[in-house]
Specification:
This is Saccharopine dehydrogenase-like oxidoreductase. InterPro entries: NAD(P)-bd_dom_sf, Saccharopine_DH-like_oxidrdct, Sacchrp_dh_NADP-bd. Belongs to the saccharopine dehydrogenase family. The protein is about 45% helix and about 20% strand. A 7-stranded mixed sheet has the order 4-3-2-1-5-6-15, sandwiched between helices. Strands 9-10-11-7-13-14-16 form a 7-stranded mixed sheet. It is of the alpha/beta class. The chain has a domain at about 155-365 and about 415-425: 2-Layer Sandwich (Dihydrodipicolinate Reductase, domain 2). Strand 3, helix 2 and strand 4 (about 80-85) form a beta-alpha-beta unit. Helix 1 crosses helix 2.
Length: about 425
């Protein structure tokens, strides 16, 4: 998603452009932008926005779907339609000038002065864009913010929310994700599955990339957070948990590094986990996980995994994606257990003496919560410009939005942040 801003923002015909609007996730983003535009737009003025993609017919169909979902006669007259192809640099530049599908879009936005919001959750992509475009984006005054969907706004902003609600110094947080489904079950589009396949296959390149970036180590403040095992029984939830395999951990660490080095804030240690259920679920997961890790190492194995996602994921990932009933019956809860030191206590001495529990709850994560998070991030980018980092660059969500009203906006749209138990000494 390209958002207005950067250079010559006032001259642009659109505040916001949804690129890839006719894709599976894009159709839900269009619907969410339509809602945002219908609630008063930008700073009280009408939100000027457009959809972009390769096919005018498909884009029109997406607008018709959104209008039907929102009970409107049509959206076409009030929404621009831009034709562009990610393989055509010229068309991408034209799209960016009027307001993420990989590096060409990032490059086009940076060079043409358009801010960019993306839901990509692959650390290799996110950190690669930081290495290649951070300095240029800073020069152009452009903000490039990735992982603005379910990966990883609930986690990244949830840690900051927990920190802000603790009266003292927060030094460590563990989050536990639970996903509940209705009688129709849970299903995910296979685009997410493909990202996982290629992401794991490319782990060696991620290590090399991080060496090139030369990250300064983030200091450990307070008691060191202990790593959990691969599978463990969680007494808090009375079920088994495993480390969360998404990008949350790497995104939160990037945010904490930025807040420490640039704003001199105390860095928070972080561990991300997901609850998987009882012993039967553990056995199924271990079998599927071993098969997945074996196949992902080889080219032929990756071809099998991406060709038959439904078979290798036991029906969880399909080429068709979830039905509306499946989405309507699914919700998520991310619970944060934080520990730290009360006011006046030195975090470098002694054990943590205060704890806090917070929660982020929301609707189906992939195609309802993700568009909400992405669109509200874009609105924050447009409306909270004075609260963004002083210079442009390639940022994680928490680094970009820690001083904005993003959490308030998310709360109003049903992605709710709350304190479950107040700090206890």
């Amino acid at each position: 998603m390209a958002a207005g801003g950067g250079t010559k923002a006032a001259e642009r015909p659109y505040d916001l452009v949804v690129l890839g609007a006719s894709g599976f996730t894009g159709q839900f983003v269009v619907e969410e932008v339509s809602r945002a535009a219908g609630r008063g737009g930008l700073c009280g003025a009408a939100l000027r926005w457009a959809v972009a993609g390769r096919s005018r017919e498909k884009l029109r169909a997406v607008l018709e779907r959104a209008a039907e979902r929102l009970g409107k006669a049509a959206l076409g007259a009030e929404v621009g339609v831009l034709l562009c192809d990610v393989g055509d640099a010229g068309s991408l530049a034209a799209m960016a000038r009027q307001a993420f599908f990989g590096e060409p879009v990032v490059e086009a936005c940076v060079e043409n002065g358009a801010n960019c919001i993306d839901i990509s959750g692959e650390p290799q992509f996110l950190e690669g864009m930081y290495l290649k475009y951070n300095e240029r984006a800073a020069e152009k005054g452009v903000y490039i913010v990735g992982s603005c969907g379910f990966d990883s706004i609930p986690a990244d902003m949830g840690v900051l929310y927990t920190r802000d609600k603790l009266k003292g110094t927060l030094t460590a947080v563990e989050s536990f994700l639970s996903v509940k489904s209705g009688p129709e079950g849970v299903c995910v589009h296979d685009g997410t599955w493909k990202s996982a396949v290629y992401g794991l296959a490319d782990e060696d390149n991620l290590r090399k990339l991080r060496k090139k970036i030369g990250y300064a180590p983030v200091p450990v403040v307070g008691a060191k957070l202990k790593k959990r095992g691969f599978v463990f029984y969680n007494q808090e939830f009375k079920e088994y948990s495993i480390p969360f395999m998404g990008s949350d951990g790497s995104v939160v660490k990037r945010t904490q590094r930025y807040l420490h080095t640039e704003l001199e804030e105390t860095p928070v240690q972080y561990g991300a986990y997901v609850n998987i259920g009882g012993l039967g679920s553990v056995i199924k997961l271990m079998f599927a996980g071993m098969l997945f890790l074996l196949l992902v190492k080889f080219n032929f194995g990756r071809k099998l995994l991406t060709k038959y996602p439904e078979f290798f994921s036991a029906g969880r990932f399909t080429k068709e994606g979830p039905t509306q009933k499946q989405m309507d019956g699914t919700s998520f809860t991310m619970t944060f257990f934080g520990e730290g030191y009360s006011e006046g206590q030195d975090p470098q001495k002694g054990k943590p003496n205060v704890k806090i529990c917070t929660e982020v709850k929301g609707p189906e994560p992939g195609y309802i919560a993700t568009p909400i998070a992405m669109v509200q991030a874009a609105v924050s980018l447009l409306e909270d410009a004075a609260s963004l980092p002083k210079k442009g660059g390639v940022y994680s969500p928490g680094a970009a939005f820690s001083k904005t009203k993003l959490i308030d906006r998310l709360n109003r749209r049903g992605v709710e942040f709350s304190v479950i138990s107040k700090p206890e000494v």
